[in-house]
Every structure is written in structure tokens, then in C-alpha cells.
Design goal:
This protein is mostly helical. It is built from 15 helices and no strands. It is globular.
């Protein structure tokens, strides 16, 4: 049997070993992505079966009171509700994989376009809430650590404890009462002032206002976004601040900090170039958890501030027992959470090379 010279040289063997090594090293990363697929399927099945055992009557919502038993039977067969629940789930899943999440029971409209229309509003709110939460959380953690042992550290911890003790929806109500109604500083209902409209290009109101060159609408959208984003950030910032503060305290007990001081490095350089880098891993993990949590937190915040996002859609769907809409939104929330977790894993792999080891 002939062997190719290119494969028989030590250099080629080394390259093949390196390729094989990279492939093996990539396997955990691929696995981290693939294992979320069966988890999403299991979650979709769980939501589907739970909704089917609820005492909801889709026929009563879709048909008029004068409907005959024949009408009920015909619609039941048309919707596939006469089939066993596992078969119904298989049909729903097959359609969902093609982007068809069914029709709402209340309006008869397609679920998928309604979710896609509302999703940018929620994503924009989450992005602004996360941004503010990171600024307050990381800024508070650095401030408390920089002035550790002083009144500033204690003041930051008191503010942090108060923030974490109040749920987001209650912060939203307090902000409306204090800033919106009491001081009349910021609007607290809807996304724009009356009389302003922005052409829908991307669905993201801030982006569309910039694209349209309508800075009056942009300023109005920012003002309307301030209170709900701030309410969300108050649930994100406290855990971030605490984990960063404690991680920095742990990092400063390590030998490399003492060695850096012996080399004459300034405290600010030790903090930014060395300690903060090592304290970033638990902080990023916590940020990923908080981002997953805040996706569900938008449900009440959007309702309180009158934002037409998927949180408001979910509240309305639950009130109307609109099963197809609830199923579609639950799947959307699950996919969003898994996407956030995947991004978090990717950032952690980027920051910590040891996690890439197979």
C-alpha cells in the first residue's frame, strides 16, 4: 500500500495532530450549543402539554353563542384538536420549524408576524436596561472597592441593599409616582409623545428615529424609555455590584497583586490591568444570569409602562386564554434565554482559555 509523502513527513503528522487537537478542543464548544436543542424541544413540549390540560375552551372563544354542534365539530377537526395531544404537538412543532406558530384565537391573525413586530420593542428595552445595569453595577462595584473601608463603601452597600430589596415592578410604580407624576420630569406611558410618528424600518424605535433623521422623535423615545430601562436596571445592578466587589477583594489576596506592588505599579494599574481581568469571569457569569432573568422581567415592566412588546402580548394572551399565542411567546422567551446563555458561554470561553480545554 502506497503512502503519500505529504502524509508521511513529521511536519505533516504534526499538522494533522494539531488539526485533530483543535477538533477535539472544539467539541465541548459544539456540545454547549447542541445540547440546547433538545432542551428547547423539551420545554416546548412541556408548555404545549400544560396548556392543553388547562380548562380553556377555544371553541367558545372562536364560535358565536349560536354555533351548532356541527360547527363545533367542524372547527375542532379544522384546528386538529380532535387528534391525540402528542399528534397535535408534532403538527405544531413541524409548523413551528417552518416559522408558522399558528393563528391567535382572539383575532385570527398569524402569531409569528405579531411576535416579530413586538420583539424589537422588548429587545430595545432589554438592551437599555442591561446597559444601565452594567454601568450602575460595575461602577458601584469599582467605587465600593476603590474606597473600601470608608463611608463611601458603606453608602454604596446600603444603596445596593435597598435596590435589591425592592422588585422591579414595584420600582416601576415608585418611579411613575415620583418622577413621572410627582416631579413631572419624564413621561411614563407609551413610546412617543402624542403627534410624533416614526417610519418602521427596523422595528427598533431609536434606530428608526435616527434613520429618519427625526431627532425630536429620538429625544421623545429616549425620554419614554428612561423610566422602564431604569426600573429594569435596578434589578440587574445589585448582584453585579456585589459579585464584582467580592471578586476584587479575593483577587487582591493573590500573590500577583503583591508582586505587582513590589514592581512599583500604581494601584489604579493593578486594579485595571490585573485584578479586574481576573474578577471579570464571575461578573460575566452573573451578567448572563441577570440578562436571562430580565427577559422575563419585561413582562410586567412593559405592561406597567404601556410598551407594545412581547411582554404585553403575553399578558394579553394569558388573559384571553389564547393558547397559540402563549405557546409562541413561551418558545420565543426560551430561545432568547438560550441565545443569551450561548453568548455568555462564548464570552467566558474568550476570557478564560482554560475552558477551551477538552
Amino acid at each position: 500500500m502506497l503512502t503519500s509523502p505529504a502524509l508521511s513527513t513529521p511536519a505533516s503528522t504534526g499538522r494533522l495532530s494539531a488539526i485533530a487537537g483543535r477538533s477535539l478542543a472544539a467539541m465541548p464548544t459544539v456540545w454547549r450549543i447542541l445540547w440546547r436543542v433538545p432542551m428547547l424541544l423539551a420545554l416546548a413540549a412541556l408548555v404545549f402539554f400544560v396548556l392543553r390540560v388547562l380548562p380553556a375552551d377555544p371553541m367558545g372563544m372562536l364560535l358565536p353563542p349560536s354555533a351548532t354542534p356541527a360547527d363545533v365539530k367542524a372547527l375542532t377537526e379544522a384546528l386538529g384538536l380532535d387528534k391525540p395531544i402528542p399528534v397535535q404537538f408534532g403538527i405544531w412543532l413541524g409548523n413551528a420549524l417552518h416559522g408558522d406558530l399558528g393563528r391567535t384565537l382572539t383575532s385570527g391573525l398569524q402569531v409569528t408576524p405579531l411576535i416579530l413586530k413586538a420583539l424589537p420593542t422588548t429587545l430595545q428595552l432589554i438592551a437599555c436596561g442591561l446597559l444601565l445595569g452594567m454601568v450602575f453595577g460595575i461602577g458601584g462595584g469599582l467605587l465600593a472597592f476603590r474606597y473600601r473601608g470608608t463611608r463611601i463603601e458603606r453608602a454604596v452597600e446600603v444603596v445596593n441593599s435597598i435596590s435589591i430589596s425592592v422588585p422591579e415592578f414595584l420600582w416601576a410604580i415608585l418611579l411613575i409616582l415620583g418622577v413621572g407624576i410627582g416631579l413631572k420630569l419624564l413621561p411614563f406611558l407609551g413610546q412617543l409623545d402624542a403627534g410624533l410618528t416614526v417610519p418602521n424600518v427596523t422595528g427598533f424605535l431609536l434606530v428608526d428615529a435616527v434613520v429618519a433623521g427625526d431627532f425630536a422623535a429620538l429625544w421623545s423615545a429616549l425620554k419614554h424609555l428612561a423610566l422602564p430601562a431604569f426600573a429594569l436596571s435596578l434589578g440587574i445592578a445589585p448582584p453585579l455590584m456585589r459579585i464584582l466587589h467580592s471578586s476584587l477583594l479575593d483577587a487582591y489576596t493573590e500573590d500577583y497583586v503583591s508582586a505587582a506592588r513590589l514592581r512599583g505599579l500604581s494601584e489604579n494599574r493593578i486594579l485595571v490591568r490585573h485584578a479586574l481581568k481576573n474578577a471579570a469571569l464571575p461578573t460575566v457569569s452573573m451578567l448572563g444570569i441577570q440578562a436571562s432573568t430580565v427577559i422575563g422581567g419585561t413582562l410586567l415592566i412593559e405592561t406597567i409602562f404601556g410598551f407594545p412588546g412581547i411582554g404585553s402580548l403575553m399578558v394579553n394572551a394569558i388573559g384571553a386564554h389564547d393558547l397559540p399565542m402563549i405557546q409562541g411567546l413561551a418558545l420565543t422567551y426560551a430561545v432568547a434565554v438560550q441565545a443569551v446563555n450561548m453568548v455568555t458561554d462564548a464570552v467566558l470561553l474568550l476570557l478564560n482559555p482554560r475552558l477551551r480545554t477538552p
